[in-house]
Amino acid sequence: MDDRSALEEESTARDYDVVVVGGGPAGCSTGVFTARYGLDTAIFDRGNSSIRRCAYLENYLGFPAGIDIDTLYELLHDHAEEAGCDLVSDMVVSVERDHEDDGFVVETQEGRTVTCQRVVPAARYDADFLRPLGEEAAMFDTHDHGDGEHEHFDRDYPEEDGTTPIDGLYVAAPAGDAEAQAIMAAGHGAGVGRSIVADVRREQGYPEGLADHWDWLRKEAELTGEWADRDRWREYADGQRPEGHEMSDERWESLREQEIDRRFDTYVDEGTVERRAVRGQRRLLDHLDDDLILDAARDIEAARESAAPEE
């Protein structure tokens, strides 16, 4: 069995590759990046949501007049599901190590038991569900607060990229000042998602120079010069392979060609760009008030009629 087959078999032995706890900007952003890479991802969302305390959001880039929280939440969840995430309306109450396969067991308020390889807390207010991992001394700080001592999750416990001393545990929130603003939380969640994907790629056998994954599309017209040649990509990939790489040449060649295929597939033609642009705008209409759409349509029609030349 080759490395990729072993990884896929290991994945199918669990319910999910990634479980995200929290369905706000940080959690959904993490899920979009992991699911788009092909990792089975679940987002559990039913708890204390910090963003729902916001009356109206006015500084989230892309909404010039701001956006109401309900519509933003619908957009976040729609995007996560479009990427392939399972959205689960349930509260996670504990995360424990699954010592049989070095993964995690996630327990929920409604009695669900879910197994996964990686867990991502993305809920700003509460990380008590992590206490069963047995790292309380490192994860939680004690401080004086009015009437006595209180414990809270140490926001400096995770590294900036979301990784932690516990293999497979990443933190999107609480983490530093990342959740100070919703758009910062979304950006941090994306970074955590990329950290997970990079670690998965290392497990798949990609050397360090190829581990980082760039999730973007480019115009086919830009695929020119030396990088339009597969042999140039082979040369580049082989240059990233370290001496003593623990992989057979046959397996390496298969992995290398798969990566080159993926990179070439990121270039799309103009017709594809246009079709996706129309689909993207139509999907946005799903989240707008029907009456407002009709009002806008009438205004557009009236403007067209007034601009039409007289016969």
TrEMBL record:
Ribonucleoprotein keyword on record: no
Keywords: Flavoprotein, Oxidoreductase
Stored SUPFAM superfamilies: FAD/NAD(P)-binding domain (SSF51905)
Classification via Pfam families: Pyr_redox_2 (PF07992)
Molecular function in Gene Ontology: oxidoreductase activity
Annotated ranges, domain FAD/NAD(P)-binding: 16-120
Record field: transmembrane: none
Taxonomic superkingdom: Archaea
Gene3D superfamilies: FAD/NAD(P)-binding domain
Stated name of the protein: FAD-dependent oxidoreductase
